[in-house]
Queue: 3 jobs
Job 1
Amino acid sequence: MENFIANDKTPLGARYNDETKNIEFRLYSKNATKVFLCIFDKPQGEEAIMTLNMEKTKDDIWYTEVKDYVLNCQKRPVYYGYRLFGPNWQYNPNFELGSDIGFNSKFDGLSNRFNPNKIAYDPYCLELSHLPSDVNPGYNLFRSGAKFHLGNNAKWAPKSVFFPKKEEIMEGVSLRPFVNEIIAEVHLKDLTQRINMLENGTYLGASKFAKTIKNLGVTMIEFLPLNEYDSKQNGFNHWGYMPLGYFTLAKRYAFNKTDGSLLYEFRSMINEFHKNDIKVCMDMVYNHTGEAGLINNNPDDAILLSYALIDNASYYKTYSNGYYRSNSGCGNDFNISSPASMNLVADSIAFFASQGVDAFRFDLAAALLENSCDCDVIYDNINSLAAKLKDMLKQRNVDVIDDFNVSKKGIVLIAEPWTCGGDKCYQLGNFPSFWAEWNDISRDTFRKITIRPNEITPKQIREVFEGTPSKFKNNKSINYIASHDGFSLYDLNTYITRNPTTQGGSEWEICSNYSNSAYAQENAIRKQLALLFLSYGIPMIQLGDIIMHSKLGNNNSFNKDDAINYLNWDKATRKDSFENRIMEYIRNLINFRKDNPIFCDKNFKKCLTYHYDNGEIADFNNLGYWNNVNDKFFGVMINEGKNRLYIASNKSNDRLDMILPKVNTGFEWQICLDTSDFSYINITPRNYIEKNYILNSQALALFMEIKK
């Protein structure tokens, strides 16, 4: 494990210059005509104590500096923000706060929304002093509507917090191929909120739970968004998919909420996971922000917090009539093709990589394939940010792993390869080769094989078992059964429809209650899990699914900061419980996968032969078998590794008398797993099977060839 140094350096934003003892401020704005830096003594309740003119330098960057002895940033945080003028609100030396001097329009045909009566926080700041709803739940102070656009909000606007951070030595993790990872997705607060500890629900609490996660076999923890967001915006938001900044961390998850302490606690969490050889993945939302949006669909009345005030046209996809494009479904689309946004994304990833983050999952990542600064949708996997990001990060001294089969130093990029709207918004398999991708084909197939078996053919099972080669040339498929979106694993095997109290959520769910049969339910769960961990690709599971967490049928729990989302670990610790049985079963499936590296081998597909239920090899040209939804049997032999393995699956509601393939001379078949027999917790050879085996209804069995 190689250690490294973490610092707080970013190309834009505020920075302490060790040589000059000055604090330097840099802000990008292509379209601003005048920019002022405002320094505040306190984050709330006071006007600026200092307003400084900024000079425009090369590359549309505005710059000024302040002697540190004036601000004393080494001993106390500096609170700051910006006022900007532009084409729609021209600078006039006679301008007074709260006036309309220089005002032309709230927005112009070029999408500018400059308003010097509003304070903008820095897109590159590492911390926000407070949230808009902390001081104004209705957001009126931040609106451009008729009653609000002249209001000076300096006393109450969120301020950028600058406090120079000390460099720290960070723990590394062992080098290993990405294909070897076992990914667990979780919301940071939900992870420990119900644990009896002083630090529950925080970065510090998560770090104290690292050993427990390691003991489950998980090798990478994927956190839902950790960037700062306003949970009270538009009702309530728990998950955090409305980011206010791409360098800021959510202060609500800090145990120590003292200004200037946030990044240190985050680093401490990273260190603790790395000490346990667990990698950390951050879920990043670069397709939209939690800022810009229109009130009552009125282009005159927009929310103005940062990006829209600084350079609306550069940061957002906008129409000339003042409306925002919203293929994200969240009120705006980030203008991911503009130089400002492209550099911000690369700088943000590089910054968190320097803090020890090992991988990044990109929400609605089809947006990163766009290659147009206007509102037309043009997907391009050669010239878009998705294609350029590897090289852009290399320029920032960050390596992107481009071969998931070898041990290399660097970060991993993971795409959610679709978005919510727009033409051709489903882009699975279309990302450059150095991207891993969430695979909803595997998700739906793993579910349907027990829930809608009459919709699944042997060919479809083979497709996901082999890592979906019709979409992916390399091993880059992130296989999963359930994620934060939709039902939990327990719920999709328990409910036939979503809970009517759910806000939003889709009706498309593939789910079943198996006629309220607890036996059928558990067998289905065990079968789905077996397929997940015995298939080619990188398995991902919700951490809550390991302990059979139920959201009581809520399939869109984004707004539930309560027991619907908080993980209850108590049930899984009871030795005689269903939850404990499944947890131990998953732990052993993971261990079996780790003990048999063939499941991660790049030659996996070459090692496979497929078989009929009579044990004979299935002919690839027999389309009557492969494309037949009524054929109930699927059998596959894995011919490499320590011992040959045979997986047999029955998707019929009837028992199936199958014949095992012939063994090699001097060997015999032993059974390791039958999902219909709940005593199979350890996935190890245990009973000799001569030739015939009865597969129970909807069961999957795993056999190993053992020397006699």
Note: The chain is about 20% helix and 20% strand.
Job 2
Amino acid sequence: MTPAASAPTDRAEWRATLDRLTDSLLAARTADGHWTGELSSSALSTAVAVIALTLVDRHRPPAAHSALVSGGVGWLTRTQNGDGGWGDTTDSPSNVSTTALCWAALAIGGTDDPPCVAALDRVRDWMRRAAGSLEPRPLADTISRRYGKDRTFSVPILTVLALAGLLDANGRGAEARRGGHSPKGGRAGKEGSTGFRAGDDQGGQGDGSGTIGSGWRHVPQLPFELAAVPPSWYRWLRLPVVSYALPALIAIGQARHRQRPSRNPAARLLRRAVRARTLRRLEAIQPSGGGFLEATPLTSFVVMSLVAAGESAHLVVERGAAFLERSVRADGSWPIDTNLATWVTTLSVNALARRPDWHDLVRPADRAALSRWLLNQQYRERHVYTDADPGGWAWTDLPGGVPDADDTPGALLALHSLGAEDAEHLDAACAGIRWLLDLQNADGGIPTFCRGWGALPFDRSSPDLTAHTLRAWTVWRPALPDALRTRTERAAGRAVRFLERAQQPDGSWIPLWFGNQGAPDEVNPVYGTARVLEGLAVLSDVETIAASEQRATRWLVDAQGGDGGWGGGPGVSPSIEETALAVSALATYRRLPRAAAVHSLDEALARGASWLIDATDGGRRVRTTPIGLYFAKLWYSEKLYPRTFAVGALAAVETTDLRYHG
């Protein structure tokens, strides 16, 4: 628990803390001069990687991955929570999705060693409490309720449970027949101990009629046949998964079709007819590195599903397994994604650029290297995965990245900080701005990947992405050619109106890609409100929505804890990340003349900055908090988040003329 903060009597302590955090942030650069960060290890990722590699080994002897499987199982047993479940990070409370997948991993890839047996006993008890029963129907219903209409993650989890035999009629499946990997790497159990019929890779299919494999009736059929149509049609098809889950749609859909074909003869014929075509589509969109979106979960789901579909020898499986081999960590775990290099680099640049002396801290040669690196990350061709036009940026510099509407504004802001007058920067900015303009939805908001793909959460307009885009449009607007500037002004007006409509009755905004595990409904209005307030603060008095700004600012001030920190919402335990974001937004707004209408702003800023000083021990240490959301409420923490956010916050406060002295 961080002690209550009191405002310092002078700025020396703020400056010393800021300097230490800045030095450590600069020291975290790679040899190439940018940042890669480090994502938290994930029990969910480790579980599905263990399952995928185990199934590959069973169908492609010898068991080449037995050491990785044993290492992953060992990491899972060591990190199991005291209540018997697992959360997404080692700092996360147990949840039903991750716990179910870890249960399946121990059932499929575990051994009869005492630690694994004890872990299985504990996880069975946890799942029984969560679902009310270990019978197939309650288990399936519990998973489905967590995600509602969005099948992006519920169907993969149900697929895993079916593969493990945990949805079979006897309710135990592979766990009841567990053999485990022998010390020499071979599976001691039988081939049929998983909940699918192996057959030969091109041969027969499970009929779903027996005990083994009967669990597939609880797995909804994904319409993989729709992947055979042109990508331009996707937005009209109302697919039951989000845009970036197309590989899972194809692979899981084919596994379900093979294991339990539709009773409708027309559907069976259609799926049989397009099976090869959709597999070619899957192969075409697989990145050269083998990892779909650089994500262990998505890649693992694809690999294990293709094995269940009778395609263990397919090139996609080979490449995917190789990606998993390269992605494992020394302790046996896997993260959810390889890295967020582009994202954390732009966060770092934009945080440092808040310091008036940042050009002295980052030498011209280093700034030039950062510029070149960022320019090289811009997509110059249509993206094979999402069919996105050129001009955007992804979260990573690796081949599995996909351009999106949070990383693109971040890159645009970083390039502006690195030199708005540079002609090459302006050319890249114009392309990025056009990319975002083309992405804008009819409601004026900005979605993540694809315009108008559907109504599922990760394809809808989002306040935090819209505000980030608005900020990037606005800072570049004076330098744009006349026609593009005019188009941007109109789009900004529509974005502002969207934000006004999206504001919650209490004055906050709810973000898309960030949450808080301790907040009601696991949302993070502090993150969302801070991001939107920063986006609105760049607008002129005639462009902004002053009433919405003031309500949001008052909400942020009122959400501050008694100790001076912020959590994800009122009454939630504070974190460095959320406190820094709130301080940064309030300090940015505080510099505007229209901020005079908000009372207690200086006091809130001073107390928040002091909390950051105490929480970081004057900039000597930072602790990460899981506030990041991947897809489908999959939590992560990132090592650089607290550092970059704190640097940006304290730099913003330092340049603000506060009139509060405690």
Note: The chain has three domains: 1-31+508-662, 41-335, 339-502.
Job 3
Amino acid sequence: MIKDSLTKIKEIIKLFLRYTPFNFSFENIGYIPRWLVFWFDLQITAIVLVFVGIITNDFSLLFLNKQFIPLIFIALSSTSVCFIIFKTYVGLIRHSSYIDAVKLFFASFCSALFLLIINFIFFKVKGYFLFEHLFLILFSLGLFVSLFLFRGLVKVVYTQYLSKNPSSNEKVFVLGTSQNSISIAVAIENEFPKRFKVVGFLDKDEKIANKRIFGMPILVLKRKAHVLIRANNATGLIVLENDLKSEENIQHIEDCLEHNLKIYRAPSISELDLNEGINKSIQNIQIEDLLERKPIEISNNKILGLIEGKTIFVTGGAGSIGSEIVNQLGKYSPKSLIVIDQAETPLHSLTLKVENKFPELNFIPIICDIRNKERLDYLFKTLKPDIIYHCAAYKHVPMMEKNPSESVSVNILGTKILADLAAKFDVERFIMISTDKAVNPSNVMGATKRVAEMYVQSLHNFLKDRSRTKFITTRFGNVLGSNGSVVPLFKKQIQEGGPVTITHPDIIRYFMTIPEACQLVMEASTMGSGGEIFIFDMGKAVKIIDLARKMILLAGFIPEKEIKIKAIGLRPGEKLYEELLNDKSITLPTYHDKIMIVKVNNDQFDYIEKEVDQIIKVSNNNESIKIVKRIKKLVPEYKSLNSSFEKLDN
């Protein structure tokens, strides 16, 4: 009923304004000037004075005579002074809050107090009161209520005009009743134009059942979340980013996704970007948010002590892992941050981002191939790096299976050149980024990374009494969102309407987010004394088919009905599952519960160097069979799977 009345009023005002000489448009109105707010308040004051006069004179109009005009003038003057003192006209009416209500309260009663003082002065001089005491009491109350209602009416009307179609606002619940959850709900309600309509809160605490927050009900999660949301005609759920790590909340989210409800994540109110506003800050939940992983804690002081004031090289710095390492290194004030990559466009994009985020950082982008020994020698000689993060590598399994010579060239030769130069120029630390595919390798890519691991570790053991360089290897599994990850592929396939292709319904992988992996790399680089291979706790293994289903649900589709999932068979060199350790490996704990050391001794440097040189020499002839055969000799646990090289294992 109220909504219909407001709509009619809105149409009448529009028609009226359309035919004024100024052809005024309400939609184009900005902020009402302060003088206009002040003028409106004075008109309200005059109206209240007249109405109170009518009430205190037994609803008679006889008091409206020449003697009443000076009284109005006195009352308006004293009230104007109070408005100026308390600055009631300063705030934006459409954003009026309880603070403005407090200002109006004090202004109203201060005005009545002024009139009371004038009253007593007049009584002392003339012997009678200008205003009756009842008049002053009713005036102060009436003024406060009228000014408050005026601002409330403006807010309602403004909301109606700004929300051109309020029914189109998506109805959502907010998960939890923490202070942050409440603040986000209030921010959503106060945002114009509106995107969401908060219809209530969901919480597990039964003590607050049937209570309300700002008029919005709190529903206890006795039943499934989707049931409560559907029962209240809502279509979505907003979850705070800080609450996404709760396993219980993840279950509620997955329950909602299974029933085709939309899930949004919101930052805490302290992290809200005021320039963007709440609408843009609330984003669709991503697959990375559903990893059920606890936040990683790293020793920032130790990393700062390692990086601050040092010259850092990052090879492959324009890639997904390298660029995140660059991003994290920038926080620790290195003397210089030199990024080496052969990909011109990605390196240019990274340069723009880094220069914008870290304007004070001495950032040096260098186009260079890590196989160019002469160029690298020059860079080491002139820039004198203290620490190297070696991220450059070829990593696409099917591609490397077809191009073994290139895999050897970058993953083995490139690593050897960098490691040798690090030792030659007495670099403090050399941190190599490896992969779980180097464990019991089943493909060329994993095998070449294993050879690189062996060379780096044996080089450290060979030089440990003659060089200060500490060679450290970090090994982890798949990284969500990285180049070559299934996540970008699945997103593209979903956007195209499917099908989403998986290689095998039983295939599983360990996943980390890019920031998680890079944080652990940074931490491991501080604790290594040289020669270690660090592995990371990758959490629970994830079935790729489950990942595909979740991503389809996150995109708002129903798996197998709207978007099909199709198994296309294992690719060359692909395993059903990856390993971080082989059967003979022994692990040692570190002070960080997510980082362990693999105890593998590679102290046969002369033999390994000789074999590596032979592999590199054979690769120059581009004879794939001979290349793989040489690698299998050095890495006997390398057994090809679903590959043309399987015959070499017989």
Note: Confidence is low (pLDDT under 50) at residues 19-30.
